What does this fold into?
Amino acid sequence: MFCGECGTKNEKGARFCENCGAKLELEVPKKTKVKSTNNENLGTKWKKLSKTKKVIGGVILILLIALFAIYTIISNQLSPKTIAKNYFLAVVNKDVDAIYEYMDIETSDFANKEMFLKIFDDQYDDEDAMKLSNYRVGKVNMSKDGLTATVTISYVEDGDNDTDIAEITLVKQKSKKYLIFDNWCISKSLYPVQVISNFEFKALKNSKVKIEGIEVDSKYIDKKSSDETYDVYKMPAMFATEYDVVVTLPMGFDIENTLRVSESNNKINISAFDEDNLSDEMIKELEGLIKTGLQTLYNGAKDKQDFKSISETFGDKKIDLSDLEDTYNSLKNSLSNVNLTNINFTEVTLNDFSTYDDYYRVDVKTKYNYSLTYQSGNEVKTHDSSDSDSMYVYITYVDGAFHIVDAGSLNTYFSKYY
It folds into this structure.
């Protein structure tokens, strides 16, 4: 530190000059002037950053509001109440595309949209559409478990003063709509076509079946339920309505039929047919089969043979002949008191052919000649005569051929007088 009066250098911190005694002034270090440019820029940046945050925050808020609005709109559109209303209007207007989309339908070859549209077009006209004066959608009644919902809609048709009620039942699906929304489908439909699961029908074995022009694949045949005579088809899903069916029988001809699908109408025989479907050749074949069968039964009965000795005429072990055996034994017992020595069936004419349970019933008119002996005093006499009777047989079709499995109205009276 230097003295201001004499210029003598003094020790640092001295208050008076050691040479002249003058009071020393303390040196104050000069402050370096700092430019204010950085602070001003920093403040500006903070201001700019604050505006950006506000803009971003505003954009996020708008997006959140928009997303919430979209969620609310979609959630409302997919709610049980809205779906029930839209489905009701689709039924009113016969909008079959919309009806199908709203229904809970298990898709299969014969319960799909194409089949639904076809059946709808075949059975319903545009004139069937309702015309409403007004309608009101009621509250949604949810089940305790939240899996089903029921919506009641009140409506009045044009020209009608009475209020009608439509009760629509919906069921919540396992899958979600757009990953997050509940997926509701119509369970109990106003449209008169329900879906029947595991519906069964049967057709003569080795037949080819077409439903509404589509051939039914053999994968639908339930082998456990099928037997030697019939193939049983188990369909995973079909509409509860009428289907047009064409069955190509193993005998070589087609029959047209109607398959009426319902919960109570199960295991229908769609291969049922009558005499109108039979060709002349097949009628002759059946008449010959029955003529041989009746001749065998009566010859065996009059000669008191066991059924086993004649059973080969009627089929092998695949054929259940227990009913025919009972009928034969009854015939044999009835003829035990009749001294029938000969019977010859000369003519068998088919009168009627119909389906009966698991068999076919064939009613025929028979003509036959017969001979019998009888005691007249001490003399044994012979009487020859002819007669005609109506009889019937039950037949089955196995391994490409008809087989007699039972018979009825068999004549057991043979007169010795005429």
Remarks:
- The domain at 280-408 is CATH 3.10.450 (Nuclear Transport Factor 2; Chain: A,).
- The mean pLDDT is 87.
